[in-house]
Sequence to fold (356 residues):
Amino acid sequence: MVLTACQPQQQNVEAQSTQAQAEPQTQPQVKSGLAEPLVEHIYTADPSAHVFNGRLYIYPSHDVESGIPQNDNGDHFDMRDYHILSMDEVGGEVTDHGVALSVKDIPWAGRQLWVPDAAEKDGKYYLYFPLKDKNDVFHIGAAVSDTPEGPFTPEPEPIAGSYSMDPAVFKDDDGEYYMYFGGIWGGQLQRYEGGTYNPEDAYPADDAPAVKPRIAKMADDMLSYAETPKEIELLDKDGSPILQGDNDRRFFEAAWVHKYQGKYYFSYSTGDTHKIVYATGDNPYGPFTYQGVILQPVEGWTNHHSIAKFKGKWYLFYHDSSLSGGQTHLRSVKMTELTYNPDGSIVTIDPYLEQK
Fold:
């Protein structure tokens, strides 16, 4: 399916299947935004963007109306498959390649296909996805394809030693691949604070170091870890750790790493304060020092992003709930240019103002 990016397609929204459509009880006033949704025939969220073979590919979640009441565990985000989007030019036609992977095709599946990411190595493409198993515990799975758009064939079991959600795979300049992952609340990362799974939530005290995101180097087969996952230190500029009670800066979910002028940029969502922020370091393992805000809050509760360079420019990919009338579980992927100051700091983006 081929669509035109950044063009109104209200007739497509009205024609959506009942699964991808919802009738809100109220229509809140919604800001129009700096950017328009890349596609409007389905709801998409949590975009992971990569350039493969000179073409921009976006690996989003596929939001549907689950009918499940909202709660802090995110049960209403009951995604069931992935659609991959691609384009040759920013602002040009966007291709929806259809269903690339479905929960019904994954042998170990329980429910909830959350945020995916992708990587390429030696002509093979790998799709990484979080999914709850039949015991309702999140793990991270892998699937393989000969093309970046899929379809992808899942492995029979999740990645050994994986847990929580939001996988993001970064390829360093030396050819090594690293997976960053984790998310608190519904993402269950707080249940591994003692090193093993605890079915009860266990958070540090507000004045203690916050729950840390995780990293693991990928093995050569790209289907397993080469090491036990490690914690990532997030620090204030004075060298002290970010604290659990620092909701404006502590890690919540949505880890992403990119490299700019030799520095590693670790960006993430603050969750209940609804910002995308970033920290920088000199090593893929960190530590990373907090620097500031990339994206101010968007319409809807969640804020999730990726960053990629395409045809000489850097772009931020994100989502909001403007297309669905503000329904937080029915979101739409957007993109806008990302710029840096001369010192390497990122210019903060207000998603509803034109950038100067």
